[in-house]
Amino acid sequence: MKLRDVVAGANASMYHRLDFQKIRGVYYPRSEAEVVEAIEQARAKGYEITPKGGGSGLSGACTGGNRDRFIVSTLQMKELLTISKDQGYVDVQPGATPDEINEVLEPMGMKLYVSPSSRDIATLGGLLATDGGGNDTWANGTMRDNTVRVKMVLYDGRRLIVDWEGVRSDDAELALELNKKDMTIHDVASAHGTLGFVTELRVTIRPLVEEHLMGAIAVYEDFDALGSALDRMIKSETPIRYGEAIVEAHKDVRDDLTPPILILEFPEKEKASIAETTDFEEVDSGELERLKDIRIKLPKRNPNEGVQAALFEGYGFFEDSLRGMQSRMEAINGLLIEDGFEPFAKYGHGPSKWYLGDNTPAFGLIMHSREIRPTDKTGKELFETVLKIVDLCDDMGITPKPEHKWPFSDKAKKTRIEELRTIIGEGFNAFIFEPECASETLSSMV
Amino acid sequence: MMDIKTVRKEHSINYIPLLLLTRIPLRISARLMSEIDRCVRCGSCLQFCPLFNVTGEEQFSPRGKLYLLQVMDLIENDEELGRDFRRLLFQCTMCGRCKDVCSSDVDLLKIWHEQRAKAVGAAPFEFEYLDSLRDSLANVYNIYGLDPDDRAIYWLDEVEDEIPNIHDRVYTNGKTAEIMVFLGCLMSFRSSQLDVVKSFLKALEIVDADYLVMGAEEFCCGHPLHLTGDESGADNLRKHNRSVIEAAGAKKVITGCPGCLIQLRKYHNFESAVAMHHTEFFDHLLEVMPATKRTETFAYHDPCELGRILDVKEEPRSVLNKLGVKYREMDLSCCGGGGLLRMTDPNLSDKIIQLKRATERLSETTVVTACPSCREVFLSNEIQTVDIVELMAEAFEGGGG
Ligand SMILES: Cc1cc2nc3c(=O)[nH]c(=O)nc-3n(C[C@H](O)[C@H](O)[C@H](O)COP(=O)(O)OP(=O)(O)OC[C@H]3O[C@@H](n4cnc5c(N)ncnc54)[C@H](O)[C@@H]3O)c2cc1C
Ligand code: SF4
Ligand code: SF4
């Protein structure tokens, strides 16, 4: 064992206590050729491949579970290969983050409009693999909506180019088979690195809009009021540019705020139309920045006593579950408290958009949640609570966003990926397909 | 891996405790664990770490090292990992950028300090390369192993022409003054620092300061030992400095070295003397300063220990503004010279400054800074540099360019 290998387990999920003996090597390729080489080495030794980006994912998928594997990191694949201002795209290696790309684009008056709170560390490869989004997803779509095409390397070294039309490959037979299955970007999105290694992405860029936006805060009496306001916004196709909810927050981290609240930004001329969907109070730019700062730091801060845990993220409230948030929140908190967790912070993007496993878009609130970690629970016990939450969400019509929820409890997505893997090989992140959504492995890693 | 019983049989008795000891630093106290557990492994600190930036590998990053501590119970029996981890702790510039950017309020610098102390304490034989430094500090009280009487010799003659009474300014028993100048080892012994020393002292003369220089009575401030976690060794040095400074009745101790300032301000525990950086002293003293005649645009490098660790950010900039010096801000990243990295891994230190040189186009500009250690790094990489106090003394004398 080498430190270099052990440390590859570092990731933001609570699944981080790995069997390090099983990490057989860690690679930091700089080019597609080096990725191919790493994969070849793995294949020769019978190891799997786990692609890793910034390690900010919360599902644990970038760990590769506990199987004999190479971890192939994209932390050194950050090159911007082509910038086409006219045609509105950039070709980029998968390890670049939205912040890094925008640092280059913004002086040119262009921008990649994908803004997860983790945009300083989440890589484009990781964002596509989890179909990430952010506070502007409502206006600009998820990562898949901003992806034009990807280049991928498969476990047997063959290469693919996947776009919205289908698949191209030097191996015509492979392309034919995959096209028969209508494989597109939809499949690569949210695949959690199970199909192949993305070595290059073409993503949409658009002019930087110098729009005068005003900031506002909307404070709600209860969760139903918040959910209903979001529901009205969605129905009216609200023209907000930024929408973030602080659903609830521990006193140590909420300052003077009284959640549930929405932090909003929209063009001044839309004030009246927004007012039809929610009451709000205008805030100046300084106050807006303060509110945004409180929100963006919630996933990282800790209570004065104890530490937070990312037990389960990405509750997708939409339609009935959005309008009826109060009872559902009570049920979630009831479960958490019964299992010894003190709710710490719930927050998220809203109104927002995500895709269900069958690729239909859903619109609502993506709520993330952090709890104060009980000191007397084993990893297995913590994981049992995760499973209970998954069941509760299923019962209550809350559709966890695939980016965060343990991915393949979404049966439609799982079945689809398994089908594609029979054609393109099964050497990537296979632990995800272990029985019961890899519960055995995951619970050993908490 | 051999178990301890087998080792006992196979090796001489001397060797056994060392093997046992190698495992000690890997155990982490509950108090420290709760600090380490505050790290949510979000990864936001990666891009700010100079070591990560030059290596591109996670083990050098703050998250990587904290993660290793978080899972230490799973790997603590692996001696090779233990050794590598101890080495890793010294592949860090202790620049504090990670602590600064961490929204989870993890006190990373404190963790690095404590872990360094543990590492050296538990496996001293792995740090033999630090022995000569420790010996020098214990025997001759400076980092160079030079005769302590030479502290004031190197620069005295050079300064004499311009400050004829400089010999009277050197502290000897019984002399008193309002200000004690603490030059530090670098400025006392390195010819590359001579211009800064001259400017510093000239500036004090011009403002008619009542000052003394510690001369041979100055011992190292203890910072290098502090960086290796050897607080008791550092304390021996501090005690001496404190007694001299207090005997001289100094109300202020002024230094141009941020590392010394950390020690003087935080660990010397003076009864009444206040430790200041020269930029603080001159900025507080003078509302206006004569304008520089320099017309070029400099690049200001905020020394990590001054700006970040001691939070002295305003005064250096205020002095530059009062002098009318044009400057652009540099990225707040370390020059590669901190944390003893130039001693523990010069190769990595070089890579850091070379990357900075390229990304901040330093070959085209003169870097203005306020730290002798940063100065050494810049000079050894053929980057032109001046200390703020040089620009100030020049302007006071009506010159500069
Ligand atoms: C503080 C914080 C805030 C967050 N906020 C948001 C948010 O606002 N919105 C949001 O959507 N998410 C958010 N996340 C979650 C996380 O940032 C996203 O899931 C992100 O997409 C993960 O990207 P990554 O580069 O870190 O990928 P990793 O975590 O390294 O990997 C995630 C998955 O992508 C796969 N993968 C990575 N690179 C490749 C590649 N080149 N080819 C194939 N597969 C690959 C991995 O195998 C893994 O399955 C947040 C996380 C944190 C810690
Ligand atoms: S920024 Fe803080 S919480 Fe995040 S990985 Fe770094 S040390 Fe950990
Ligand atoms: S102190 Fe500086 S060099 Fe050390 S880990 Fe933190 S950021 Fe990196």
In a few lines, what is going on in this structure?
The complex is a heterodimer of chains A (446) and B (401). Chain A is α+β, with helices and mostly antiparallel strands.
* Number of separate strands of chain B: 8
As an assembly, this protein is: heterodimer
Strands of the largest sheet of chain B, in order across it? 2-1-3-4
The CA-CA distance between the termini of chain B, in Å, is: 66 Å
Write down the Rg of chain B.
22 Å
Sheet having the most strands of chain A: 8 strands, antiparallel
Helix fraction bin of chain B = 40-55%
Total of DSSP H or I helical runs spanning 4+ residues of chain B: 23
Report mean pLDDT of chain A, rounded to a whole number.
95
Tell me what the CATH architecture of the largest domain in chain B is.
3-Layer(aba) Sandwich
Assign the CATH superfamily of the largest domain in chain A.
FAD-linked oxidases, C-terminal domain
Secondary structural class of chain A: alpha+beta
CATH architecture of the largest domain in chain A: 3-Layer(aba) Sandwich
Name the poorly predicted regions of chain A.
none
Of all chain pairs, the largest interface belongs to: A-B, 33 and 32 residues
The bound ligands are:
flavin-adenine dinucleotide, iron/sulfur cluster
Strand content of chain A: 15-25%
Largest sheet: number of strands, sense, barrel closure of chain B: 4 strands, parallel
> Could you name the CATH class of the largest domain in chain B?
Alpha Beta
Reported by name, the CATH topology of the largest domain in chain B is Rossmann fold
Distance between the termini of chain A: 21 Å
Description:
The complex is a heterodimer of chains A (446) and B (401). Chain A is an alpha+beta fold and 446 residues long. The longest helix of chain A has 18 residues. The model of chain A has no long low-confidence stretch (mean pLDDT 95). In chain B, the strands form 2 sheets. Chain B has a 4-stranded parallel sheet. Chain B has a 4-stranded parallel sheet with strand order 6-5-7-8, with helices on both faces. With 401 residues, chain B is α/β, with parallel strands linked by helices. Chain B folds into 3 domains: 119 residues, Orthogonal Bundle (Fumarate Reductase Iron-sulfur Protein, Chain B, domain 2), CATH 1.10.1060; 144 residues, 3-Layer(aba) Sandwich (Rossmann fold), CATH 3.40.50; 100 residues, no CATH class. The chains are: A alpha+beta (446), B alpha/beta (401). Chains A and B meet through helix 1 of A and helix 5 and helix 7 of B. Bound molecules: flavin-adenine dinucleotide and iron/sulfur cluster (2 copies). The site of one iron/sulfur cluster (SF4) has 15 residues of chain B, from helix 5.
